[in-house]
Amino acid sequence: EVQLVESGGGLVQPGRSLKLSCAASGFTFSNYYMAWVRQAPTKGLEWVASITNSGGSTYYRDSVKGRFTISRDNAKSTLYLQMDSLRSEDTATYYCTSPRPYVYYPYWGQGVMVTVSS
Amino acid sequence: AIVLNQSPSSIIASQGEKVTITCRASSSISSNYLHWYQQKPGAFPKLVIYSTSYRASGVPSRFSGSGSGTSYSFTISRVEAEDVATYYCQQGSSNPPTFGSGTKLEIK
């Protein structure tokens, strides 16, 4: 059974940093792309970033480019999201996902809440 | 980025009723790359339909999808109480992947 378990969320002041982790199990982590999708309170879903299976290529939405860094440790089957220079508009539940061919997301973590507020 | 316009934004239906949600893309999408999710309150999204018309594992047959090009639809043939949720379309045809704004389904 595929499991994705996020951690590292919390309350942080604007301009500060936070690092999210996602521990994966139940599949061969190193074979698959991974991604982060977020959802602001009462809002819709928004793709944030993706990383190839080797970690050699990364992709970001424009609003987080230069501030967020997605990375992975295939030996630990763990995905990360380093979030720097956080803004109030980054407040959201962040989901770890594992895209499949044709870029759909059959597997999701339970989500981790990030609140950016002074 | 491809914008997905979902309609309606909300539906109130009776149990047993048929409901249809439409997703219109700002540019043509390969049908392989259009997908639908169900998100119940307080839960993570669940894949329901992938590649326009294929039901994900364990999804009841009352859920279906169709479409091509810029126009796609999602149908629940006979709504049940457990279908109360927000439904989202999503495209992976062009970067960045984008989601529709969601359709909230409630039961009368």
Walkthrough of the structure:
The complex is a heterodimer of chains A (118) and B (108). Chain A is an all-beta fold. In chain A, 0% of the residues lie in helices and 47% in strands. Chain A has strands at residues 3-7, 10-12, 18-25, 34-39, 45-51, 58-60, 68-73, 78-83, 92-97, 112-116. In chain A, β4 and β5 (45-51) form a beta hairpin. Chain A is globular. Chain B contains no helices and 10 strands. In chain B, the strands form 2 sheets. In chain B, strands 2, 4, 5, 6, 8, 9 and 10 form a 7-stranded mixed beta sheet that branches. Chain B has a 3-stranded antiparallel beta sheet with strand order 1-3-7, with no helix packed on it. The termini of chain B are far apart. Classes of the chains: A mainly beta (118), B mainly beta (108). Chains A and B meet through β5 of A and β4, β5, β8 and β9 of B.
Form type of chain B: globular
As an assembly, this protein is heterodimer
Radius of gyration of chain B: 13 Å
**In DSSP terms, counting alpha (H) and pi (I) runs of 4 or more, how many helices of chain B?**
0
Please provide the ordered H/E string of secondary-structure elements of chain B: EEEEEEEEEE
Q: Helix and strand string of chain A, N-terminal first?
A: EEEEEEEEEE
Largest sheet of chain A: 6 strands, mixed
The portion of residues assigned to helices of chain B is under 10%
In this structure, how is the largest beta sheet of chain B organized? 7 strands, mixed
Distance between the termini of chain A: 40 Å
The overall average pLDDT of chain A, rounded, is 97
The strand count of chain A comes to 10
Beta-strand proportion of chain A: over 45%
The first-to-last residue Cα distance of chain B is: 36 Å
Which structural class do you get from the secondary structure elements of chain B? mainly beta
Q: Give the helix proportion of chain A (percent range).
A: under 10%
Number of helices of chain A: 0
Strand order of the largest sheet of chain A: 2-10-9-4-5-6
Largest protein interface, residues of each chain: A-B, 20 and 26 residues
- Return residue spans of chain B where pLDDT drops below 50 for at least 5 consecutive residues: none
